Amino acid sequence: MSAAGTPGARATTHTCPGCGAPGVARDRYACRPCWARLPWKYRDRIMTTWRARQTHNADSSHLVAHHHAMRDAEDWYTNHTK
Ligand SMILES: [Zn+2]
Q: Strand runs (DSSP E) across the chain, as ranges?
């Protein structure tokens, strides 16, 4: 994953899919605690598809795969809220 951000880069953030906390950096899927509690297989899938997406930018199938990985993780959070 990329580091904390390049100066001048878009500073957009989103809401954490696990707890709803705002301010999650654009290149992160969830806030730190939520990312930590997500099972490894979900994290691995998100990171793998994310990397493929960076490498094969023109191929939209990687974008779709990444979206599916994130959607499945969102389902996991929905079923595993405290
Ligand atoms: Zn969270």
A: 13-14, 24-25
Give 58 Cα–ligand 1 centroid separation in angstroms: 31
Q: Which residue range is the domain that position 27 belongs to?
A: 13-79
C-alpha 56 – ligand 1 centre gap (Å): 29
Q: What is the pTM of this model?
A: 0.78
Strand 13-14 to strand 24-25: parallel, antiparallel, or no bridges (unpaired)? antiparallel
pLDDT value of residue 82: 64
Residue 1, domain member (yes or no): no
- The number of domains in the chain is 1
* Ligand 1 center from residue 41 Cα (angstroms): 18
pLDDT, one tens digit per residue, over 16-44 is: 999 999 999 988 999 999 999 999 999 99
Residue pointed to by tokens 């595993």: 80
% helix / strand / coil in the chain, to the nearest 5? 50, 5, 45
